[in-house]
């Protein structure tokens, strides 16, 4: 099985911590040169230093905010003026929680911009390089809510479906050029995002956070939260040459929680 990413450049977004950073670490171990993107410069510097150098790769970072499309356009233009990106991991911070009926209309437009428009800007910028190289891997970190809506994540549930539909459409359009487009759907994963979601629910219900955690765990067949490394493993496999015939799919990495649709 061909797993080496030597000679490949990966742009991993939302990668100063959590699932994005765990993914960058795995891609670096397989030999990819990693470009990290997030908002906090200091965290990015630390994250770059934590990446393995297996094949003399020079990892780097770019500071940009997915809430600002102009920043994402400028960031990716700067990157592709220096080198082609062969692997793009679309990822950013999760949307605010809450029931759908309570959401303000701007929450939809903001989330759509952050989770779909920015992905689209990045894809449009990198496909020329992928096409020229005959190698492209676009992997979107979404959520199991594209299979079954999650409680208390109304806006997220709505926009995630749009991202999944965008990705499936692109997968068909880009397949003739050797570019695959796939989605990884994390279940509850031990990161800052999960802790803040549990804290928000605990506050709203005036319940201890342990109670919320126990309730969530009781719904997962494996009775534990995922580790960011376990999500990263699926993303990284999809980035390898071995995954070249897999495109247009959604992979749940969720300890068996999501029901079959
Ligand atoms: N953890 C879970 O249980 C879970 C489950 C399902 C889906 N997901 C989804 O998976 C994705 C990653 O989650 P995670 O758990 O890894 O989250 P996390 O630990 O909060 O990490 C989010 C990463 O994205 C960056 N980021 C946040 N807002 C950004 C912005 N506006 N522009 C650019 N970068 C931004 C953060 O760095 P900076 O703050 O420095 O920008 C950080 O590196 C999210 O979309 C989340 O909703 C997570």
Q: Strand pairing plus helix content: what structural class?
A: alpha/beta
Return the CATH architecture.
3-Layer(aba) Sandwich
Task: Outline the low-pLDDT stretches.
Answer: none
Shape: globular
Main sheet: strands, sense, barrel: 7 strands, parallel
CATH topology: Rossmann fold
The helix-strand sequence is EHEHEHEHEHEHHHE
Any idea of the CATH class? Answer: Alpha Beta
Please identify which CATH superfamily we are dealing with: NAD(P)-binding Rossmann-like Domain
Average of per-residue pLDDT values:
97
Q: For the CA atoms, what is the radius of gyration?
A: 18 Å
What portion of residues belong to β-strands? 5-15%
Number of helix segments? 8
The kinds of small molecule bound in this structure are: NADP nicotinamide-adenine-dinucleotide phosphate
Distance between the termini: 31 Å
Domain unit count: 1
Residues in helices, as a percent range: 40-55%
Describe the structure.
The protein is of the alpha/beta class. The chain has a single domain (9-190, 226-253), classed as Rossmann fold (3-Layer(aba) Sandwich), CATH 3.40.50. Helix content is 46%, strand content 14%. The protein is built from 8 helices and 7 strands. The protein has helices at 18-29, 41-49, 69-82, 105-133, 154-174, 192-205, 209-218, 228-239; strands at residues 9-13, 33-38, 60-63, 87-90, 136-141, 179-186, 250-253. Strands 3-2-1-4-5-6-7 form a 7-stranded parallel sheet, sandwiched between helices. Bound molecules: NADP nicotinamide-adenine-dinucleotide phosphate (NAP). Residues 14-20, 38-40, 43, 65-67, 91-94, 141, 143, 186, 188-189, 191-194 line the site of NADP nicotinamide-adenine-dinucleotide phosphate (NAP).
């Amino acid at each position: 099985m061909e797993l080496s990413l030597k000679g490949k450049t990966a742009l991993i977004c939302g990668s100063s911590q959590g699932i994005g950073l765990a993914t960058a670490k795995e891609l670096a171990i397989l030999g990819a040169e990693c470009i990290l993107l997030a908002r906090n410069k200091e965290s990015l510097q630390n994250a770059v230093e934590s990446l393995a150098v297996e094949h003399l790769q020079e990892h780097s970072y770019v500071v940009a905010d997915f809430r600002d499309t102009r920043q994402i356009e400028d960031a990716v233009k700067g990157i592709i003026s220096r080198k082609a990106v062969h692997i793009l991991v679309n990822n950013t911070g999760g949307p605010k929680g809450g029931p759908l009926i309570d959401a303000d209309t701007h929450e939809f437009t903001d989330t759509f911009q952050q989770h779909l428009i920015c992905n689209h800007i990045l894809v449009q910028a990198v496909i020329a390089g992928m096409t020229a190289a005959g190698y492209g891997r676009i992997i979107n970190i979404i959520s199991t809510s594209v299979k079954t809506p999650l409680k208390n994540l109304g806006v997220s549930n709505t926009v995630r479906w749009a991202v999944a539909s965008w990705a499936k459409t692109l997968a068909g359009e880009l397949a003739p050029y050797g570019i695959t487009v796939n989605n990884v759907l994390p279940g509850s994963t031990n990161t800052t995002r999960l802790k803040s979601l549990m804290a928000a629910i605990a506050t709203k219900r005036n319940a201890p956070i342990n109670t919320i955690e126990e309730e969530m765990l009781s719904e997962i067949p494996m009775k534990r939260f995922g580790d960011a490394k376990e999500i990263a493993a699926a993303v990284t496999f999809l980035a390898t040459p071995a995954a070249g015939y897999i495109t247009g799919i959604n992979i749940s990495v969720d300890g068996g929680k999501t029901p079959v649709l």
